[in-house]
Specification:
By secondary structure, the protein is of the alpha/beta class. The protein contains eight helices and nine strands.
Length: about 220
């Protein structure tokens, strides 16, 4: 399955649509990124729900600049296939859900890294369409789903992405899911209309309940 350059390029069938983030949702991100940093004499400290200001140089103990943090993140994405692994039950749950719905990965990363991510996802058995973009997710999800009168689900670990979709595609079932429990405890509280799932089993229950309610409605 290719990595798509634009939302309008992704083919859909006449059935429910699940759009899900990748990092910290489908693939572990924080845990392998922390290991990556440790291998380079740096560390990510769980002091707040952000990367900036929490990455330190272990040789001096000082927080690195935002520019250095960006450089480290860029280096990680270049070799992500050597570090990232699936979140617990992500592969199995998505395979089950794909029997009833189309699934699209919408990852907030520079498109130049999409080929490496595409290859990694395929190796892991996650061969669903991939859209890599740094644009706001709400308009992208709206464009993906169009005017179809079918259930729409959006899953992400970052609340502002969920809020964006809430504004632009208000009929969506919105699920906040994050793999790393340590940083999840530091996350802002989800606002009204956003469901929090501790794992993929809980997310699947929310999705199937939504589909049932939509069908009966």
């Amino acid at each position: 399955m290719p990595a798509f350059a634009a939302a309008g390029d992704v083919p859909l069938r006449q059935r429910p649509l699940i759009v899900t983030d990748v990092d910290e949702v489908v693939l572990e991100f924080l845990t392998p990124f922390m290991a990556f940093l440790e291998a380079r004499e740096h560390a990510l400290l769980p002091r707040s729900f952000r990367l900036a200001g929490n990455i330190i140089d272990r040789r001096g103990g000082e927080a690195v600049s935002e520019a250095t943090a960006e450089t480290l993140l860029e280096a990680f994405f270049a070799v992500q296939d050597q570090w990232q692994t699936p979140a617990a039950r992500a592969v199995e749950t998505l395979a089950e859900l794909s029997e009833e719905a189309d699934i699209i990965f919408l990852t907030a990363m520079p498109p130049r890294h999409a080929p490496v991510r595409r290859a990694l996802l395929d190796v892991l058995g996650l061969s669903y369409p991939l859209l890599a973009s740094e644009e706001p997710k709400g308009p992208l999800v709206k464009h993906l789903h169009g005017e179809r009168r079918l259930p729409l689900v959006f899953i992400d670990d970052i609340l502002h992405n969920l809020h964006s979709v809430q504004v632009h595609a208000p009929s969506s079932l919105l699920i906040n899911l994050m793999a790393n429990a340590e940083f999840r405890a530091l996350a802002p509280t989800a606002t009204a209309g956003i469901h929090v799932a501790a794992n993929w089993a809980e997310a699947a229950k929310l999705i199937r309940s939504h589909w049932g309610a939509t069908t009966s409605g």
